[in-house]
């Protein structure tokens, strides 16, 4: 590894190159477009509405499946193949490893959204949608991707098995996504407390075009929490060797 280069950037470039030269990138992207396309065109044609409300409404659940699929191999495969031990022999820290992997996961997730801009263009061609919620929806989606990428990396750091890593990340993402759906069964005194932990609630707020500092802090905190947990997980793995 070139000492003059930032190790995180080198790892980021390596991950991006490996991802986009593998079949999984196109499989995941294709499946994501099928799912998101159904959400959009179901509203567009059946309800005759030029809007992205339903698309954004179910996007947190869709990303709960697809972001773990992107991240499941990033650390688990390194451990399984033994390349992680080789990586530790280089002048690179756990923080730099996680930073590079996280950036690659975030960019890969953001790339999934790019083709969906076609839906926005379609709305403007056939109607006059409100730009605020549309911009807010995509901004919120990027925050979701960042948080779920950190969660996915954490899950991938816990095991050598990609499938186990996927289901751990999926379970965590689903909990944060669907917790708001169970608030009606909770006492009124604790609803506000649990609603604060709902990724869907904060995403919904941003997707209305309302930028609230509390929503931004929520996603920043969630991302930072699992980012730090991943670093600590790798440190404990290194100490156990």
Structural account:
This protein has 241 residues and is mostly helical. The chain has one domain. The protein is 78% helix and 0% strand. It has twelve helices and no strands. It has helices at 7-20, 23-46, 53-71, 76-81, 83-88, 94-113, 117-126, 131-157, 162-178, 188-196, 199-207, 213-240. The longest helix has 28 residues, at 213-240. It is globular. It starts with 6 loop residues before the first helix and ends with a helix. The model has no long low-confidence stretch (mean pLDDT 85).
Distinctive features:
cell membrane; ABC-type transporter activity; transmembrane; mainly alpha; ABC-2 type transport system permease protein; single chain; 241 residues
Compile the SSE list and pairings.
Layout: H1 7-20, H2 23-46, H3 53-71, H4 76-81, H5 83-88, H6 94-113, H7 117-126, H8 131-157, H9 162-178, H10 188-196, H11 199-207, H12 213-240
Helix pairs in contact: 1-6, 2-3, 3-8, 3-9, 6-8, 6-12, 8-9, 8-11, 8-12, 11-12
């Amino acid at each position: 590894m070139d000492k003059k280069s930032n190790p995180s950037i080198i790892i980021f470039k390596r991950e991006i190159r490996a991802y986009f030269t593998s079949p999984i990138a196109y499989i995941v992207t294709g499946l994501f477009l099928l799912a998101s396309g159904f959400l959009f065109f179901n509203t567009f044609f059946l309800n005759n509405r030029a809007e992205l409300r339903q698309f954004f409404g179910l996007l947190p659940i869709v990303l709960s499946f697809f972001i773990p699929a992107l991240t499941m191999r990033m650390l688990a495969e390194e451990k399984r193949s033994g390349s992680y031990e080789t990586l530790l022999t280089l002048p690179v820290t756990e923080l730099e490893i996680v930073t590079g992997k996280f950036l690659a996961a975030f960019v890969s997730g953001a790339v999934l959204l790019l083709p969906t801009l076609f839906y926005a263009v379609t709305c403007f061609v056939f109607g006059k949608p409100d730009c605020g919620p549309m911009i807010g929806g995509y901004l919120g989606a990027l925050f979701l991707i960042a948080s779920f990428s950190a969660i996915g990396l954490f899950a991938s750091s816990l095991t050598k098995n990609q499938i186990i890593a996927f289901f751990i990340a999926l379970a965590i993402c689903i909990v944060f996504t669907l917790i708001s759906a169970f608030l009606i069964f909770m006492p009124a005194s604790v609803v506000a407390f649990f609603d604060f932990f709902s990724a869907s609630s904060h995403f919904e707020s941003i997707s209305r075009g309302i930028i609230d500092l509390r929503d931004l802090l929520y996603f920043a905190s969630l991302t930072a929490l699992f980012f730090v947990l991943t670093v600590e997980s790798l440190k404990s793995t290194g100490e156990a060797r």
